[in-house]
């Protein structure tokens, strides 16, 4: 079969497909081409960004480590200057000027405190040596190797060559026993006179820093196992010893050293003799610009994340291609989309969401069903609103009826008590009781409101107690503890006074005196927590709770049932009433009510 036959056969095959198959085939080609192009572009962008970020992160790590070492070495230099400013060192310089060696031991002793302070301020300092023409001065805790004089050492020769202080590379300490590897700071001792005259003093201070501590310091934040770090000079030679790996071979190669420019920091890629690429980052120290910290990492490990991105991109592309095979089957969703949308709306209606509405720009049969569905929802919503309004009116009527059913015996007894006291000539009590009763009536009316501020309800309780304490003299005392912030909270009226009345009539029934009633109101989160308790004869909480849940015609516990029923009508389940006995075997009744301060919130919850 030649090429012409193949090209003529393919259109015929394509034309033989059904419409669904042609759409399927077209979508597969387009989606496959788009995904391959998108994946390739995304991989290229991601690879460049990851490489840039990784190189920057690697450089930042080396810079940070170099800064840490630089600051630590600066601090040691500062410690040397502090040593030279000490009184003991100044006296030593005078003795050197006067060539007076008779005070050697006195100066050695006075310098011990200075040495200890310098070593205390920086734990990396291994030893200190002050070389002078009249003798060497050092901490007595160190053992001096007298066989090696500073004035015959390589350090002295290097100082004479440089004519200034310097840091030396890592070496074995020649001036003290122990063969400790150290990095040394050598500085010339300065006095006030020598500084003014600009004359050499021939006094030298040597600070030996432990090489292990320097390495631990610059390696503290360099924990990447795929990267090696070195403390070297501009020729690639170690400042301190290092365990070189395979990249040791090129660290001192001329072509490698040439790329370590005089810039304070930098990075470059280096290819070794095995044609393996490495990322090299370096950062020079300020205290000695010939020293630097160098990081070396193989490029393949540096960009290892790209392999994962390449695999992920390939898998995602293949996955989307597979998904594209089934896209044409979902074209039917376009035709059935209005019906599916109507089905979702019906499910939301099942979840009591009556605000949903079907919308469509089409006029087909499914849309007509949806519009009729909307009209049905409007009728249902109107019916529910009507039922809700009737129930609200019914609940208000029940609340008013229950409020009006509070036992009127209190008023009868009060009037009888007022009459008796007027006959006995106790006019002051009569006046107070009549005024308190008048105030109670006024508070009970409360302008026709069903809910009043807690402050008004407490005033109602106070007026009631004023009457009862005149009626039952010396029978009880009353304590009230209310948080001031709660006085504005709205509560159903005449909700606390029946609880006080319950304590007086039932709790103190057989008592002549010694009764105590306590009323507290405090905030409990979002709740108003009201507690009324007494030290009377108590009650049986289980029987009262049964009477609340299963009302009877008995008058026993009538006031509590009335309150319980009213709370349910006002708050529904958003309230709680507990009846228990306290530690004195008296009654304790606790109410938890929502903290509402506006009538809109209150009626919003009861609606």
Automatic annotation (TrEMBL):
It holds the Pfam family HATPase_c. Keywords: ATP-binding, Cell membrane, Kinase, Membrane, Nucleotide-binding, Phosphoprotein, Transferase, Transmembrane, Transmembrane helix, Two-component regulatory system. GO terms for cellular component: plasma membrane. SUPFAM superfamilies: ATPase domain of HSP90 chaperone/DNA topoisomerase II/histidine kinase, HAMP domain-like. Residues 333-385 form the HAMP domain. It comes from the Bacteria. It is a multi-pass membrane protein. One of its GO terms (molecular function) is phosphorelay sensor kinase activity. The keyword Transit peptide does not apply. It is found in: Cell membrane. Its main location: membrane. The chain crosses the membrane at residues 23-46, 315-336. This is Two-component sensor histidine kinase.
């Amino acid at each position: 079969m030649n090429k012409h036959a193949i090209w003529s056969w393919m259109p015929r095959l394509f034309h033989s497909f059904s419409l669904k198959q042609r759409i399927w085939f077209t979508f597969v080609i387009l989606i496959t081409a788009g995904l391959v192009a998108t994946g390739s572009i995304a991989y290229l962008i991601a690879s460049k960004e990851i490489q840039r970020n990784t190189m920057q992160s690697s450089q930042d790590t080396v810079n940070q480590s170099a800064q840490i070492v630089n600051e630590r070495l600066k601090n040691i230099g500062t410690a040397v200057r502090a040593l030279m400013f000490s009184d003991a060192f100044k006296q030593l310089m005078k003795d050197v000027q006067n060539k007076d060696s008779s005070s050697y031991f006195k100066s050695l002793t006075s310098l011990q405190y200075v040495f200890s302070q310098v070593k205390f301020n920086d734990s990396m300092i291994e030893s200190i040596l002050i070389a002078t023409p009249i003798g060497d001065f050092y901490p007595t805790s160190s053992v001096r190797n007298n066989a090696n004089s500073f004035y015959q050492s390589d350090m002295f020769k290097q100082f004479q060559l440089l004519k200034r202080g310097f840091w030396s590379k890592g070496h074995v300490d020649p001036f003290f026993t122990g063969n400790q590897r150290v990095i040394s700071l050598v500085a010339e001792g300065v006095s006030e006179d020598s500084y003014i005259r600009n004359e050499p003093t021939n006094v030298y201070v040597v600070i030996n820093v432990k090489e292990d501590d320097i390495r631990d310091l610059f390696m503290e934040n360099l924990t990447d196992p795929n990267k090696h770090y070195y403390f070297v000079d501009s020729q690639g030679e170690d400042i301190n010893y290092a365990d070189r790996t395979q990249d040791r071979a090129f660290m001192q190669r001329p072509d490698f050293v040439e790329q370590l420019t005089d810039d304070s920091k930098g990075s470059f890629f280096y290819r070794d003799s095995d044609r393996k690429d490495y990322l090299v980052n370096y950062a020079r120290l300020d205290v000695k610009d010939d020293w630097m910290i160098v990081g070396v990492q193989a490029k393949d490990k540096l960009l290892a994340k790209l392999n994962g991105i390449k695999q992920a991109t390939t898998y995602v592309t293949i996955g989307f291609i597979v998904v594209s095979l089934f896209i044409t089957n979902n074209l039917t969703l376009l035709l059935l989309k209005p019906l599916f949308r109507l089905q979702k709306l019906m499910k939301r209606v099942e979840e009591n969401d009556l605000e949903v509405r079907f919308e469509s720009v089409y006029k087909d049969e499914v849309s007509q069903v949806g519009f009729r569905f909307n009209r049905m929802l409007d009728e249902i919503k109107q019916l529910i609103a009507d039922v809700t309004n009737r129930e609200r009116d019914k609940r208000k009527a029940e609340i008013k009826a229950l409020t009006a059913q509070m036992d009127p015996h209190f008023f009868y007894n009060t009037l009888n008590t007022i009459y008796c006291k007027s006959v006995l000539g106790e006019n002051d009590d009569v006046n107070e009781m009549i005024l308190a009763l008048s105030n109670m009536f006024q508070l009970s009316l409360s302008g026709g409101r069903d809910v009043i501020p807690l402050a008004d309800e407490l005033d109602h309780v106070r007026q009631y107690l004023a009457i009862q304490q005149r009626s039952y003299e010396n029978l009880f005392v009353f304590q009230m503890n209310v948080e001031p912030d709660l006085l504005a909270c709205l509560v159903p009226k005449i909700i606390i006074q029946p609880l006080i009345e319950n304590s007086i009539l039932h709790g103190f029934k057989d008592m002549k005196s010694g009764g105590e009633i306590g009323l507290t109101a405090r905030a409990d989160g979002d709740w108003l927590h009201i507690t009324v308790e007494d030290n009377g004869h108590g009650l049986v909480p289980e029987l009262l709770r049964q009477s609340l849940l299963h009302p009877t015609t008995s008058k026993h516990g009538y006031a509590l049932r009335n309150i319980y029923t009213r709370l349910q009508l006002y708050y529904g389940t958003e309230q709680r009433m507990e009846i228990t006995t306290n530690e004195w075997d008296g009654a304790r009744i606790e109410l938890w009510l929502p903290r509402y301060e506006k009538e809109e919130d209150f009626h919003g919850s009861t609606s």
